[in-house]
Design goal:
By secondary structure, the protein is mainly α. Helices cover 70% and strands 0% of the residues. The longest helix has 31 residues.
């Protein structure tokens, strides 16, 4: 698979404002129409920009959706990394990471649901970024464990925890969960993390089948 080239950063204020207007309009369009029905034309109208302005910054509707997902995951990672935790235990640091993740989901509501669902769709351009994001979260988790002289978490266990939190987030968004429901989900996710930290799964090795006596 060909790796997507890095998005060029512009320091021109007009460029930044135009790109921001397009991204803001895309949030409205994707949450209102859904990814499948949304068109570039819908974004152009909502943002009040020309087709030339749009294609100067984004290659397609999918590229625009990818930019939103990259922004959301970068926001989560930046918030987690900025909170160094001080003398906190790894469990407290992990709970804080869960809080950040669910806060971003609850704050962005329908958009979070769109991005999460699309990132899980087979063949989605968001899939590669999602894998990189999950790998980054697990790396941050294991770095915190190493600092506390605790063995790293089993990679498969880490993926299972993240998949559980992703699925929980989608469920909360789809049913329009209340603050109380998000608070309860946060407590459940904290318990899931606690169980994962306490777990020390035994790796399963597959031995060769025994030969049948002749």
């Amino acid at each position: 698979m060909t790796q997507r080239p890095a998005r060029e950063r512009s320091y021109d204020l007009r460029e930044q404002l135009a790109q921001g207007a397009i991204l803001a309009a895309a949030i409205d369009v994707f949450t209102r129409l859904g990814v499948a029905k949304a068109r570039v034309e819908d974004v152009l109208v909502a943002a009040g920009v020309s087709r030339r302005t749009f294609y100067k910054r984004f290659r397609s509707k999918e590229d625009l959706l990818l930019a939103l997902y990259e922004a959301a995951t970068a926001q989560i990672m930046a918030a987690i990394r900025s909170d160094d935790g001080g003398s906190r235990s790894p469990r407290d640091a992990f709970s804080r990471a869960v809080d950040v993740y669910l806060d971003v989901v609850s704050s962005n509501g329908a958009l979070a649901g769109v991005l999460l669902s699309e990132s899980l769709r087979p063949g989605s351009p968001l899939a590669m970024v999602r894998r990189r994001f999950r790998d980054g979260l697990i790396a941050e988790a294991n770095a915190a464990l190493r600092e506390a002289s605790i063995p790293p978490m089993d990679p498969t266990l880490g993926l299972a925890v993240l998949a559980g939190i992703e699925g929980l987030s989608i469920e909360l968004v789809e049913r329009g969960a209340s603050r109380a429901e998000f608070a309860h989900a946060r407590a459940v996710a904290h318990e899931l993390v606690r169980c994962a930290l306490d777990a020390r799964p035994t790796r399963v090795t597959h031995s060769s089948p025994r030969e049948t006596p002749r």
